[in-house]
Amino acid sequence: MLPDFSDSTALFQMAQKEQLYQKLVVQLQKDFSLANVNIDLLPDTAPAELKKLLHEKLYYLILEKFAEYLNLLYVIDVPEKAFKDMQLTDIVDVSEQVTLLVLKRELQKVWLKTRYR
Fold first, then answer.
1. pLDDT band (50, 70, 90) for residue 1
2. CA-based nearest residue to 54, from 21, 28, 78, 79
C-alpha cells in the first residue's frame, strides 16, 4: 500500500519513481473535467508547477465557488475523515492541506489502477 505522505515532495518523488507521475496528471485533469472545473494541466507539467496550479485553483474555489469545490472533492472522492484531522488556521493553509489530500487520493487511484489491472 502507499505510504501516508506528509508533503507533496515525497509524493511526487514516489510517483516519478514508480513512473506514475504522468498518469497522476491525466487523472487530475479527468476528475477536474468530470466536476466541470477548468484546469489546464499537461502531462509534462513539472511537479512544483502542478502543486502551485492545484493550490491556486483550490484556493479560488474555496473563496469564490464553494459549491464547485465541494463537487470536485466528491468527484475526486477525498475521504471525510481526512478533513477532520486538518488543522484549520487560515484559508491559504487550508487550501494547501486540501491540495495534499487531493494529490494523495489521485495518486492512490492511479497506483491501484496500475497495480491491479
1. low
2. 28
| Best CA proximity match to 7, nearest among 41, 58, 51, 50 | 51
Average pLDDT, the chain: 92
How far is CA 37 from each of CA 3, 78, 86, 100, rounded to the nearest angstrom? 29, 16, 24, 18
Amino acid at 38: N
Average pLDDT over residues 71-81: 93
The string of DSSP codes covering 28-86 is HHHHHHHTT------TT--HHHHHHHHHHHHHHHHHH-HHHHHHHHHHHT--HHHHHT-
> What letter does residue 7 receive in the DSSP assignment?
S
Question: Where do the structural domains in the chain lie, given as residue ranges?
Answer: 8-115
CA distance 109 to 97: 19
36-55 pLDDT per residue, tens: 999 989 888 999 999 999 99
